């Protein structure tokens, strides 16, 4: 039986609007709309959120695992469900499950497992690699970075044709033909782990590349004679970029500069991993981030709500804008008008959090997370 719910007595953030003394109406799996608290229909159950913030469920387009679960080392439906359950509790109601550069067999196994598991929270897979530039490989093993030939693309995607939604590539090393091949498979291409020059980056959009992966990290340097990949991203109004706001991957002042120049083109990801002692990626927790055993920075321990908090408290980004960076902007990038907002007809994924950025309640497809079975 569908439940009709009205969330009241909170600050409701939806897109570019803030609603106060209003109620968010939810009927089953969908948002009905936002009305005055005096106009709540009689058949709705009224829920007082006691002055908390109410916003769309958060969206993370790049996450590898949570806690002690790293998907690439635990390729099972159970590991996907564990990651989904953890993220729902954090207020992240949509995400792209990500794999870093690995063997083709691991990528293919991931596709088989993902398709068989039929995840509900994970919208698809994000392959960060293997078509990268070894000069900017970061934690990615150089020996597993390969050329994007037609044969390699077909092999890589042979088991995950419809589940790979995003791929990070080094466009300066990928031919126009290979890019057309990937775009024809409806894959969102993101420039990353790239040594592209500013001149090369200026051609990305016309080649079909709309965004870039973790701005500033694993990119060509910003130089006064060639601003490189990051400089061109800051200036090119056609390109968006994700950024990791944990204070480790990127300094907060750099985030502030990036935001000032990019505005709505900048969105949040966590780049979060899980602790792991086996396989290619042995992630070791170090205070507030993860490293490989040799000390190479390999991932964050960030949540999306923590990223919003850091944007507000450390970068002076207004709360409503920080929320959009974690909801509306990534939803727009992946073409999902039913996510990232609380408009009538949108999927009823909702986060309620207090002034201290603590999660009070999460609603997934109209049901409270405690009642959701993944």
TrEMBL record:
<dbReference type="InterPro" id="IPR032466">
    <property type="entry name" value="Metal_Hydrolase"/>
</dbReference>
<dbReference type="GO" id="GO:0008448">
    <property type="term" value="F:N-acetylglucosamine-6-phosphate deacetylase activity"/>
</dbReference>
<dbReference type="GO" id="GO:0046872">
    <property type="term" value="F:metal ion binding"/>
</dbReference>
<feature type="domain" description="Amidohydrolase-related">
    <location>
        <begin position="54"/>
        <end position="369"/>
    </location>
</feature>
<dbReference type="InterPro" id="IPR006680">
    <property type="entry name" value="Amidohydro-rel"/>
</dbReference>
<feature type="binding site">
    <location>
        <position position="249"/>
    </location>
    <ligand>
        <name>substrate</name>
    </ligand>
</feature>
<feature type="active site" description="Proton donor/acceptor">
    <location>
        <position position="271"/>
    </location>
</feature>
<feature type="binding site">
    <location>
        <begin position="217"/>
        <end position="218"/>
    </location>
    <ligand>
        <name>substrate</name>
    </ligand>
</feature>
<feature type="binding site">
    <location>
        <position position="214"/>
    </location>
    <ligand>
        <name>Zn(2+)</name>
    </ligand>
</feature>
<feature type="binding site">
    <location>
        <position position="225"/>
    </location>
    <ligand>
        <name>substrate</name>
    </ligand>
</feature>
<keyword id="KW-0119">Carbohydrate metabolism</keyword>
<keyword id="KW-0479">Metal-binding</keyword>
<feature type="binding site">
    <location>
        <position position="139"/>
    </location>
    <ligand>
        <name>substrate</name>
    </ligand>
</feature>
<dbReference type="InterPro" id="IPR011059">
    <property type="entry name" value="Metal-dep_hydrolase_composite"/>
</dbReference>
<feature type="binding site">
    <location>
        <position position="193"/>
    </location>
    <ligand>
        <name>Zn(2+)</name>
    </ligand>
</feature>
<dbReference type="Pfam" id="PF01979">
    <property type="entry name" value="Amidohydro_1"/>
</dbReference>
<dbReference type="GO" id="GO:0006046">
    <property type="term" value="P:N-acetylglucosamine catabolic process"/>
</dbReference>
<feature type="binding site">
    <location>
        <begin position="297"/>
        <end position="299"/>
    </location>
    <ligand>
        <name>substrate</name>
    </ligand>
</feature>
<comment type="similarity">
    <text>Belongs to the metallo-dependent hydrolases superfamily. NagA family.</text>
</comment>
<protein>
    <submittedName>
        <fullName>N-acetylglucosamine-6-phosphate deacetylase</fullName>
    </submittedName>
</protein>
<keyword id="KW-0378">Hydrolase</keyword>
<dbReference type="InterPro" id="IPR003764">
    <property type="entry name" value="GlcNAc_6-P_deAcase"/>
</dbReference>
<feature type="binding site">
    <location>
        <position position="128"/>
    </location>
    <ligand>
        <name>Zn(2+)</name>
    </ligand>
</feature>
């Amino acid at each position: 039986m569908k439940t009709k719910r009205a969330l009241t007595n909170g600050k409701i953030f939806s897109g570019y609007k803030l609603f106060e003394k209003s109620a968010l109406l939810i009927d089953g799996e969908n948002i009905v709309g936002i009305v005055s608290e005096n106009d709540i229909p009689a058949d709705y159950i009224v829920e007082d959120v006691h002055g908390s913030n109410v916003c769309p469920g958060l969206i993370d387009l790049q996450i590898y695992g949570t806690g002690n679960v790293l998907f690439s080392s635990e390729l099972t439906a159970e590991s996907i469900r564990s990651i989904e359950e953890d993220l729902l509790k954090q207020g992240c109601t949509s995400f792209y499950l990500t794999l870093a550069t690995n063997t083709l067999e691991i990528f293919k196994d991931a596709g088989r497992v993902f398709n068989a598991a039929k995840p509900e929270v994970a919208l698809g897979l994000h392959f960060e690699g293997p078509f990268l530039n070894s000069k900017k490989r970061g934690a990615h093993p150089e020996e597993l970075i390969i050329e994007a030939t037609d044969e390699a693309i077909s092999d890589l995607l042979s088991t995950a044709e419809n589940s790979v939604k995003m791929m990070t590539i080094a466009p300066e090393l990928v031919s126009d033909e290979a890019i057309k091949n990937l775009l024809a498979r409806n894959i969102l291409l993101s420039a990353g782990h790239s040594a592209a020059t500013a001149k090369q980056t200026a051609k990305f959009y016309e080649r079909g590349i709309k965004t870039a992966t973790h701005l500033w990290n694993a990119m060509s340097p910003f130089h006064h004679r060639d601003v490189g990949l990051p400089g061109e991203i800051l200036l090119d109004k056609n390109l968006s970029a994700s950024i990791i706001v944990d204070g480790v991957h990127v300094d907060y002042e750099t985030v502030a500069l990036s935001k000032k120049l990019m505005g709505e083109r900048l969105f949040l990801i966590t780049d979060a991993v899980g602790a792991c002692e086996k396989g290619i990626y042995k992630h070791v927790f170090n205070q507030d981030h993860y490293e490989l055993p040799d000390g190479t920075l390999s991932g964050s321990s960030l949540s999306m709500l923590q990223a919003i908090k850091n944007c507000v408290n450390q970068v002076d980004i207004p709360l409503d804008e920080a929320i959009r960076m974690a909801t509306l902007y990534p939803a727009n990038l992946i073409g999902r008008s039913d996510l990232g907002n609380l408009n009538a007809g949108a999927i009823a994924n909702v986060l309620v959090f207090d002034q201290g950025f603590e999660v009070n309640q999460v609603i997934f497809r109209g049901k409270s997370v405690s009642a959701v079975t993944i």
